[in-house]
Amino acid sequence: MSDQGKVAPARRRGLADEVADRIREAIFNGAYAPGEQLREVELSGEMDVSRGPVREALRLLEREGLVHCAWHRGTTVTTLSAEDVAELDSLRGALEDLAVRQVIVRASDEDLASIAKTADMMERAGDAHEMVRLDIAFHDAVFAAAGHQRLADAWDGIRCQVHLFLLTRISRSTAGYLDCIPREHHGLVTALRARDTNTALDLFAAHRRHAVDVVAGTTA
Questions:
Q1: Where are the strands (E) in 71-160, listed by range?
Q2: Using one digit for the tens of pLDDT, what is the confidence trace for 138-174?
């Protein structure tokens, strides 16, 4: 066996991660809309970094499903197709059903209080983008309270795409959005605190279905 190490020296990835964070944040803030092109030259200039970290950051975001890279179009913010929405909704539903069952069986009162706190914060949301962030935070708390690490990892794998889906939802309509979302989530908290599995599953499903219907244009 040679003296050469078994693995290559690790490379620092901090800058690419930071660039990815900043681009992701811009997408979530609405600075870049679905379908909008992300140009390496412009991004590197705005962030005062070379194109290498930008290119690597865009690859990271592509793996998250937030951007799409194609040789003939460059890199664009992902536009969710009807098939994308259906697949994302069915997978999210399967994960969330398990999370709800786990929470009802395993969650402590402190876990439920943490979930309720995110719902309370929605009452003070200043705009639709902040509400989307709190919506994601609510579901983060649900998956955390489930006490199931692999389930939490699975949620983390689609979390950014769900965020993008909710941004698509508010791009379709915000009519009554700031009023209805806190109310829906308080209902979810009530069902979880009551340890009422069937009601909780039904309410979570209705919550998801409402958003899908808005994106599909079948409801306001």
A1: 74-77
A2: 999 999 999 999 999 999 999 999 999 999 999 999 9
